[in-house]
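Researcher: We're reviewing a set of sequences before deciding which ones to prioritize for further study. For each one, I'd like a predicted 3D structure that I can look through quickly. This is Hermansky-Pudlak syndrome 6 protein. If possible, include the structure in token form so it fits the rest of the review sheet.
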Amino acid sequence: MKRASTLRLLSDLSDFTNASLLRKVLAEESLVRVRSTPDGRHLLLLRPPGSPAPLLLVSRKGAGLGLEPSCLAGQGPVLDAFFLQCPGWASGPRPVLALVWASGRAEVWGTGVHPGWQLLQQAELCVSSKAKVVAIAALGNRLVWCEERPASTEVAEGSVQAAFSHCVCTRALEPHGETSAILGAPKTLLHHCPHFQLLASRSDFFMVPTANTWPSVAHILLIWYPGKGRVTVAVPAHNLTHSRNLSPKDRDSWDFRSLLQRVPGLLSGGEPLDIHTCAAAQGSLLLLSPKGAVSLIRRDGGARAVGFLGYGLLSQGVPVSLGIFSNTLACVLGSGLELLDMGSGRLLERKVLSTDRVHLLGLSAPGIDEEEENKGGLRLLSASGLFCIGWEMGREVEWLNSEDLVFEEACGYYQRRSLLGARLTTDELKKGSTFRAPLALAAVLRGHQPPTKLLSDLQAELRDYHGLERLKTRLVAGDGQEEGWTELAEREVERLLRSDLTGDKLSQLNAVFSVFPAAAWCSTRRALQLQLDEAGQLKSRAPPDLWKKVLVDTGADGALPPFELLCQCLCRLEPCWLPPFVELAQQQGGPGWGLGAGGPGPPLYRRALAVLGDWAGARAGALELELLLGSGRPKAVLQAVGQLVQAGQWERVLDAGLALSPTSSLLQMEIFTVLLAEFARHRQLDAHLTCLRRLCPPDLTPTDLLLLLKRHLPDEEEPPTPFPKVGADPPLTVGLLRGLLEQARSGAQAPSPYEDILWDSGACPSHPKDRHYPSVGHSSPR
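Model: Here's the predicted structure for Hermansky-Pudlak syndrome 6 protein, in token form for your review sheet.
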């Protein structure tokens, strides 16, 4: 599809009253402000405050009289002027003009049965005579202004109290009789607020900070919805918004400071908004920074980037006007007109105008354009006339789809990074397979989901985000502090575990674990889906990707990796969970799995032992033994067995050997050899011969068994005696060896030379006959 922009002349201004003066002001005054009625039949030109001579010119299209400057002689420069709409007139809508001075004086002018403009009302907007109006906006029949109220004599100029001495007030135009109208009673919306600039957009009012706004709140803007009676507090830099009822519990207004106290995170980490130009357009707000970045603030407070303008023109101080039509951003920079696509920020067209004094009047109102092709376009006003800009179908400009925009952006990106002199084209990106990122993104855009399907997929995420915002609000309000902070920490850990745990996110995870260890562990346990099975073993149903994030060694800049962080937390809270957790981690990633940035890292049990000594306290020794036994590494297991043997914990050594025997026959042989050596030296294992017999390797023969025993039998320094010395262990006997030899014989394939020792006939030998020996002192008969 191809299209090009067109600029159509709607009027050469000859059909407006005071046409010559109107052209002269538009040609000579570059900073003049322009207002128009919704039907486009009345134009208002106003010099800004501080001009050498005040000027107010109202021109009407067709028959009638304009409002001459002589009507306002001697009253000083007008701060601003607006066309209002008065509802309820039986004779139909007629233009009503409101003039406002900085002193708070306001005049309402209207047209009636008599020719020309008549003064309908003179009023004072400010309650105090010392107050002054610093900003004002109008929408429909409503005036909204920001006034600076006098501070007490004790308040110093430039202090915080002086900076928050402003109020935002409103008055509505009401019919008074059949042909007249007056401003109704004033209402205060916000007390103790900073200096705000006011802009009206379709049905809402935007309150934008200025250069005079206190720096700590200069990053915040407010949006007031008169029809709903609500206000939204927005921080565009962080895309944070919060909406509240402006008049809860029959209150007439809000205090600005208490309003911010009810919204979490607004006063921290915010840089003042850097605004060069701002304009309201189609219910949204356009912000232009001095560097040329254009942002869009929606009526719900959400913010997004739109595009970039030429920085050189902004630095020269040329006037700038912004507007939106047909999803296109129109920017008038001096004598240039730039059209950018609102979706991609791509420059669609650049036009050079005949003058640098051009004003945007907004979208064409119903009734001003009789031709269908002019509807939906922006109106441009200059000394040459009133024009309408819009799109028409043509052959000059090609309208690119989202896939083409992806390849164009990728082409420029790779070209900047390339060291080759050859020019990269979009066709090379589409056909080649070297650059996969633009191909993947184009494929996603080609098959993107409709908004309804995408919204349903994101419903759970949006619900969690909304619940998190409600929780933050409750915390700031002081409701359920302890439970609220715990829940907030749990949600933050869940969010971090779903992201890539590197850099700042890893540091933030460390901070949450240090402040809220119990909540962080509960959240991690829930995320890893840890639970005990029927056998009492720790199991997990979490996906492998999550376990990989937990186990990979990515610690840097003093931040512990996730695995060490969890081990440290378990040592503090639930030490009994540490050994089974490390064993489960080894099962999820393999024994000793743990990869760092530079390749394979240390085994998981060693990483757990590294953080054990600082947090386990008196239980460090017991936990170290359990980690070594559960590591699955032969050296670590034998190290633990050696410690248990030195401590004389025979039952635990045997239990560990029997548990590890099915996994490794070599490890079973090593443990049996260690215990057999102890069995040969002393008699402390005699009570555990049954378990020692079960630990005997099946391929061990009686010969091998006796040779092992002979190697570890103590040396006999004295001749053997039938009975042991007092306090010494009895010697090893064949009777004690009988069970081990039978176990070795049962597993041996060949007959053993010690078969006679093991043979058992089942009957005892006969007892010898009694013999009589002579007693001592009697001689035998001769």
